[in-house]
């Protein structure tokens, strides 16, 4: 219930963290919470019972003896509930490891199959040195950088975020793992523009035709997102499965190694951030208007 009071993106991160923890062999969270709740109830009853024994003891020595027995009973209860409490503590540790993402700042997410060069592009278009965020359910860190857009900064008082995301595979939505779900959540719940990255070299592990199908499925799902298609590693040779006809119309060829079209891409990023900022301002204004109307009612 507490999770439902979180913003949608953070709620989804909690769900993914819990799911990954349970997949690691931990019992389901509802069962753990039920066992901890029952343990709490038993501890309260035990404390009350022995407190009454101490109070009604005929002598100080008898009261001390009752207190000792009470502590022993409490220790037995704690030992019985050790596993449930341990699971809950470990899960809390995992949840505390979830990085903080600015929820109301225009952002750009780089999306694509694994190993297509997303993080390298983030490093090149970021204003400063990016940081690496580690999520409990990802096997590698997510690179997060920032882009200084004066117009956006004047409104929101913060630099825009630019981040890579875990690689997407060609499969049905209900078959996606927690890492892929993080990518989808970033597009679904954050105020984002999208850079979809395709690798033509054949070295990413995902065939070029499959990368195009992944791109088309996501574009169909998010048709209103500001979007730019990028073909990475422009300095490298094309792989055997590369087909120029499979490139999305208007795709920008870039290279993080020799800077091919990086200035052009940075310019497109700033344009998209402006679009996202406009939409975000409109949404915030609408929420404020609705809140004011509700207060008057």
UniProtKB/TrEMBL annotation:
Residues 5-101 form the NOG1 N-terminal helical domain. InterPro entries: GTP-bd, NOG1_N, P-loop_NTPase. Residues 108-220 form the G domain. SUPFAM superfamilies: P-loop containing nucleoside triphosphate hydrolases. It comes from the Eukaryota. Pfam families: MMR_HSR1, NOG1_N. One of its GO terms (molecular function) is GTP binding. This is G domain-containing protein.
């Amino acid at each position: 219930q507490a999770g439902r009071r979180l913003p949608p993106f953070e709620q989804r991160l909690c769900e993914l963290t819990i799911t990954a923890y349970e997949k690691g062999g931990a019992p389901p969270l509802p069962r753990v919470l039920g066992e901890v709740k029952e343990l709490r109830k038993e501890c309260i009853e035990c404390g009350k019972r022995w407190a009454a024994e101490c109070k009604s003891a005929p002598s100080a020595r008898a009261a001390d003896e009752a207190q000792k027995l009470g502590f022993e009973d409490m220790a037995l209860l704690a030992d019985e509930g050790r596993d449930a409490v341990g699971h809950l503590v470990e899960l809390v540790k995992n949840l505390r490891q979830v990085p903080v993402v600015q929820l109301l700042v225009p952002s750009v997410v780089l999306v694509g199959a694994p190993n297509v060069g997303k993080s390298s592009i983030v490093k090149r278009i970021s204003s400063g040195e990016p940081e690496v965020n580690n999520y409990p359910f990802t096997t590698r860190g997510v690179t997060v950088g920032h882009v200084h857009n004066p117009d956006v900064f004047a409104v929101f008082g913060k630099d825009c975020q630019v981040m890579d995301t875990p690689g997407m595979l060609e499969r049905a939505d209900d078959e996606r793992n927690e890492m892929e779900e993080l990518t989808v959540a970033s597009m679904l719940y954050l105020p984002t523009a999208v850079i979809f990255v395709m690798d033509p070299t054949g070295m990413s592990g995902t065939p070029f035709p499959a990368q195009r199908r992944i791109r088309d499925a996501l574009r169909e799902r998010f048709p209103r997102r500001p979007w730019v298609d990028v073909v990475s590693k422009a300095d490298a040779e094309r792989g055997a499965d590369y087909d120029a006809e499979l490139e999305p119309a208007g795709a920008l060829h870039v290279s993080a190694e020799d800077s091919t079209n990086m200035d052009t891409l940075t310019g497109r990023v700033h344009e998209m951030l402006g679009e996202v900022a406009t939409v975000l301002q409109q949404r915030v204004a609408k929420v404020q208007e609705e809140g004011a109307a509700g207060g008057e009612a």
